[in-house]
Design a protein that fits this description.
The complex is a heterotrimer of chains A (about 300), B (about 350) and C (about 290). By secondary structure, chain A is mainly alpha-helical. Chain A contains 14 helices and no strands. The C terminus of chain A is likely disordered. Chain B is of the alpha/beta class. In chain B, strands 7-6-8-5-9 form a five-stranded mixed β-sheet. A four-stranded mixed β-sheet of chain B has the order 2-1-3-11. A two-stranded antiparallel sheet of chain B has the order 4-12. In chain B, strand 1, helix 3 and strand 2 form a beta-alpha-beta unit. Chain B is globular and about 65 Å long. Classes of the chains: A mainly alpha (about 300), B alpha/beta (about 350), C mainly alpha (about 290). Chains A and C meet through helix 2, helix 4, helix 5, helix 6 and helix 8 of A and helix 2, helix 4, helix 5, helix 6 and helix 7 of C.
Chain lengths: ~300, ~350, ~290
């Protein structure tokens, strides 16, 4: 065990040793059993035929197109949801209006909608039998079973992520700083750029990280609208499924491990940022007020 | 809401410290415009096509390996005879799911599905012409297959025929007939077996199939999923499967682990193929798509089918592969069940016999 | 002891909306984007389902297989939510209050289920718990079958729901003022009493929110469940699978009818969650 935490130093907030031990044991075994073990098994199965097979699976042309497609989709979906998130959070936290709670609930809705339904809705709108199907076919515009459909489905499932990241953060920060900026004569964009965004950038970044991970990892909704054309409309998760169905288990888990690695990488970035900033604040004990003024 | 779980940590640990950090020079408008433009680009921009023609073959699950080889062979053949470069794209999935995707606008030039019923659906919606089944030889089914059993090596449960599957304690794996074309053939083969027994009637057949499904432990949605459950997960004593799927599993996953048992009676499974008329006319690919399907009937096509454990139609090629397949008495769906439409309606539609059997 | 009263922050008086610019632009963009990506597509489902008449709709959504699947989907999601509430609270506690080897790693990995594709989760769990898997091989001889039974569904749902409870409880716990515990302790309360009567009531709304979030996500879960469920009608068939089944039988109207029922339930759940959050905000003076 490392040094005691501030809670353990304080007699009032310290548990008996055995309670601490029991809690640590229970929660960590739960963690290990339900979270760590499945993760390890992904890597174990990816590597059980050796590094050569692993690398070959990743650099195979169809795998590369799947990776490229997933990146493209994320590159489109994440910025769109980022801008939406900032706009929605701005409207919701800086102003008071009727039906605000309903708006928040609707923004949350995609989160609790089954991915199967998320895919289905776009088929109903853009499918050949759907609302816009005929018109789209006449103009030879392909939405579903093509990249735009995959982007739409991804937008849907990642819709609330950035907004919901920012709303509580901006709510907690209040409106004072923006008000001060406005009083000092900054216009709306200046206030947004120079006051709000610097204040929320880490929340924003984490929202983007989550949004990106989810965008690349979405399976259910994308599966409905993809058409599964090998080498063309397969994203990484769909390629995993294909490889798995071809008895190519090692390769399937190799592709899956890329996504797990991506998740780990984003978590590492998060940790790095935290560490870096702690370092920064320790080395330069400037008061934030002073700094804010220079920013303005 | 839910993302707040992470924000809070960040927010409370960090936001106070971060206010003094350097400004992030994000240009939101630039981001927005770029991503909107690239989104637009994905709609209008189709990658430069190096091929003269492009075909999309939408097929069912177990044919992946077959068409991978067949496509290579066809591309070569087409280059040799016409000098044109053709690109063949593949899509695989459950037969019903694939037919629905085509219905919803997946632009398949040809469909090569597990059963005629799924193409009949396309015909009903006028994507395929009425006489589609007459356009090619042998009911538009260039190769056939049948239903067999895959058991564990040494056949520890002594499974020889259909009646062994309904014995208590036998664990059966089959996909769900509601979602899998192959599973519908499985179900009908079992039904036909019971019907053809001495004193067999509709009632005894229903009872037989009911007992069979009471022994089913996992109902996967597709044929490949069922095979994986049986082989990789080690669930079940017997897998009811396409013949080609069973042979492939033995070849891929180990002849030392599994054995194929051919029952005394099975069904002639005819996986059907067709052009999708609306698509080939729109894309102007009728000629090459027709050639693609015809090539399935050629010596080369039949050879490839045989190699992938489908039963070739061509008598010469079939003779070559005859020792690969066990002899089995085969009934046809038209004779016993009055065709796919009727079978689908009586057995598999909502409220059909399969539902009754499952609900008990 | 009423810690909540003192924790209640003084709410700022409502500001004049005119003070800030950009209300029309930001709200307008939000609404248009919301309508385009979420509301219009979702209304397609409702409209398609309305092609069924009332009795056909009712019959579709109350068929025996569906009733069994609701019981399964909701029951398993409820169980998973409860288990995650207990262990999620424990994990959050351990992460906030103790220092131990590998704490940073554990803290980071909590988010993993959120980022891992559901199909991968399903395949990984099925291979772990089937009878030749790392875990299944020890459970099977004990007569405990996990893969391809409702228990397997529970495992998958626990996996995907865990981050929600931990991540809603953790920040509240972190922010908890020590004075209350010190006061309780100096007034002679045991550690357990302090936890039971001082800490738990403060955490409770967060736990409830985390539970509701995990529940909402679990009910509609598809990818990870189908690989491990067994999918036997009436036993281990989840509601989203029935939607897929209907679709593959070309019964779009039937599929959308079930989708509408699920949508309705999702919306109710969310209203409940947001109500809870409003309540929490009132009690503790902060937003979740």
């Amino acid at each position: 065990m490392k040094r005691a935490s501030r809670f353990e130093k304080n007699a009032a907030t310290r548990e008996p040793r055995w309670v601490k031990g029991l809690l640590l044991f229970l929660s960590l075994s739960f963690f290990g059993f339900f979270l760590l073990l499945p993760l390890i098994s992904v890597f174990a199965q990816a590597l059980h035929k050796g590094w050569e097979v692993y690398l070959k699976a990743i650099f195979e042309p169809d795998a590369l197109t799947a990776i490229k497609l997933s990146l493209t989709v994320a590159l489109i979906a994440v910025p769109l949801n980022l801008v939406f998130g900032v706009a929605a959070a701005w409207a919701i936290t800086k102003f008071d209006f009727k039906w605000k709670q309903l708006l928040i609930t609707l923004i949350d809705l995609p989160f609790s909608v089954s991915p199967v339904i998320a895919g289905l809705v776009y088929v109903l709108v853009f499918g050949a039998q759907g609302w816009l199907g005929r018109g789209l076919a006449e103009h030879n515009i392909k939405i579903i079973f093509a990249v735009p459909g995959i982007v739409l489905a991804t937008l849907f499932v990642t819709f609330p992520l950035v907004a919901r990241e920012l709303i509580p953060l901006m709510e907690a920060q209040g409106r004072e700083e923006e008000e001060a900026a406005t009083v000092l004569g900054a216009n709306g964009w200046q206030t947004l750029w120079k006051v709000t965004l610097p204040n929320i950038k880490w929340g924003l970044l984490y929202g983007v990280i989550l949004c990106n991970a989810r965008a690349m990892g979405e399976f259910g909704a994308v599966s409905v609208v993809s058409g599964h054309i090998r080498g063309y409309t397969n994203t990484i998760p769909l390629h995993v499924e294909i490889l798995y169905n071809e008895y190519n288990f090692a390769a399937a888990f190799a592709m899956a491990s890329i996504l797990a690695l991506l998740a780990l990488l984003t978590l590492a970035i998060k940790t790095y940022i935290e560490w870096h900033l702690r370092l920064e604040t320790e080395s330069k004990p400037l008061s934030m007020e002073a700094n804010n003024e220079t920013d303005l | 809401m839910f993302s707040s779980f992470v924000t809070n940590i960040i927010a409370y640990e960090l936001h106070k410290d971060f206010k003094k950090g350097a400004l992030v020079k994000l240009k939101i408008s630039t981001i927005l415009i770029t991503s909107l433009l690239s989104f637009g680009a994905t709609i209008s921009f189709s990658p430069p096509c190096l091929a003269d023609a492009e075909l999309l073959n939408v097929s069912y699950d177990p044919t992946r390996e077959l068409y991978q080889e067949f496509n290579t062979s066809f591309i070569e053949y087409w280059k040799k005879t016409t000098g044109e470069v053709v690109l063949v794209k593949q899509s695989h999935g459950g037969s019903g799911k694939q037919a629905r995707a085509v219905l919803d606008g997946l632009e398949a030039d040809v469909v090569t599905l597990a059963l005629a019923y799924d193409i009949d659906i396309l015909q009903e919606k006028n994507l395929v012409k009425k006489d589609w089944q007459k356009r090619l030889k042998f009911n538009s089914a260039p190769y056939t297959s049948t239903i067999v059993f895959l058991v564990r090596k040494g056949n520890p449960k002594g499974i020889k025929d259909w009646n062994d599957l309904v014995k208590p304690g036998i664990e059966v794996i089959t996909p769900n007939p509601k979602t899998s074309g192959g599973a519908r053939w499985n179900y009908l083969a079992a039904w036909a077996y019971a019907l053809k027994q001495k004193d067999g009637t509709e009632a005894t057949a229903k009872d037989f199939v009911k007992k069979l499904f009471a022994n089913v432990k996992v109902l996967d949605s597709g044929a490949r999923g069922a095979t994986t459950t049986f082989t990789e997960r080690g669930i079940g004593d017997v897998l009811i499967s396409w013949e080609n799927e069973a042979y492939l599993a033995v070849k891929e996953l180990g002849p030392e682990k599994y054995e194929i048992i051919t029952p005394s009676l099975s069904i002639l499974a005819e996986p059907s193929v067709s052009l999708v008329d609306t698509v080939v006319d729109k894309k102007g690919t009728r000629k090459v798509a027709t050639a693609y399907l015809k090539y399935l009937y050629s010596k080369e096509g039949q050879e490839i089918a045989g190699k992938h454990y489908y039963r070739p139609r061509d008598t010469q090629i079939a003779a070559k592969y005859t020792k690969q397949f066990a002899k089995v008495k085969l009934i046809t769906i038209d004779k016993v069940f009055g065709g796919w439409k009727k079978a689908q309606k009586t057995h598999f539609n909502d409220g059909g016999i399969f539902d009754e059997i499952i609900i008990k | 002891m009423k810690p909540n009263e003192t924790m209640l922050r003084i709410r700022k008086p409502t500001r004049n909306n005119q003070l800030f610019p950009g209300f029309g632009l930001s709200l307008g963009f939000t609404l248009v984007y919301l309508a385009l990506i979420v509301l219009i597509p979702l209304s397609a489902v409702v409209l398609k389902a309305s092609t069924l008449n009332a009795s056909a709709f009712w019959e579709t959504v109350t068929a025996p297989r569906l009733l069994a699947s609701y019981r399964l989907s909701f029951g398993a999601a409820l169980m998973a939510g409860l288990i995650n509430s207990i262990f999620g609270l424990m994990l959050a506690w351990v992460l906030v209050r103790y220092n131990f080897f590998g704490k940073k790693l554990v803290d980071s990995l909590i988010d993993l289920p959120f980022a891992l594709p559901t199909a991968v989760t399903g395949i990984a769990l099925a291979s772990l718990y089937s009878k030749n898997g790392w875990v299944g091989r020890y459970l099977e001889p004990l007569g405990l079958k996990v893969a391809f039974t409702p228990l397997g569904i529970l495992m998958a749902l626990i996996f995907i729901g865990l981050p929600f409870v931990v991540r809603t409880v953790q920040p509240i716990l972190e922010d908890l003022e020590l004075e209350y515990e010190e006061a309780a302790s100096s007034l002679g309360a045991t550690r357990w009493q302090t936890f039971r009567f001082v800490i738990l009531p403060t955490l409770f709304p967060a736990i409830l929110t985390g539970f509701a979030l995990a529940f909402a996500r679990s009910v509609g879960e598809y990818g990870s469940v189908i690989f491990i469920a067994g999918n036997i009608p009436l036993v281990s068939e989840i509601t989203p699978l029935i939607i897929i089944t209907k679709l593959e039988q070309y019964d779009t109207a039937g599929a959308t009818a079930i989708a509408v029922v699920m949508l309705f339930i999702s919306l109710l759940l969310l209203l409940l969650i947001n109500g809870l959050q409003a309540w929490t905000a009132k009690r503790t003076g902060r937003n979740l």
